[in-house]
Amino acid sequence: MATIEERRKADRKRQKRWRKRKLAEGNKQTLLMLTPKAQKVLKREKGLTGESYVQIINRAIISIGEGHLSISKKPIYGPMSNQN
């Protein structure tokens, strides 16, 4: 059986490979700070869908871009253009 240090080292290697693969797929790592209210919403959504937090946040952001949601008070008339 592996020691705790060996397991930690293996976990760090696995995480590093995962990050490298996701970056190669065009993903970008971002750090978030969530309010307690947002945390409750995220936890509830996770319980309802079974999705990871990353999947839920990604889906919400894409929905905003497609015009399904708005974080501003301005009306949305259609999907966002392809802007980087």
What radius of gyration results from the CA coordinates?
A: 18 Å
Which percent bin holds the helix content?
55-70%
* Assembly type: single chain
Distance from first to last alpha carbon: 48 Å
H-E string: HHH
Q: How many beta-strand segments? A: 0
- Output the structural class: mainly alpha
Tally the structural domains: 2
Our count of helices gives: 3
The main β sheet shows up as: none
* Percent strand: under 5%
Which residues form runs of ≥5 with pLDDT under 50? none
Integer average pLDDT = 85
Which overall shape is indicated by the principal axes computed on the Cα atoms?
Answer: extended
Briefly say what this structure is.
By secondary structure, the chain is mostly helical. The protein has three helices and no strands. It folds into two domains: 1-29; 31-84.
Fold and architecture overview:
With 84 residues, this protein is mainly α. It folds into two domains: 1-29; 31-84. Helix content is 57%, strand content 0%. It has three helices and no strands. The longest helix is centred in the N-terminal third of the chain and has 21 residues, at 4-24. It is extended, with a radius of gyration of 18 Å. The N and C termini lie far apart (48 Å). The mean pLDDT is 85.
Features:
84 residues; mainly alpha
Topology:
Layout: H1 4-24, H2 36-49, H3 53-65
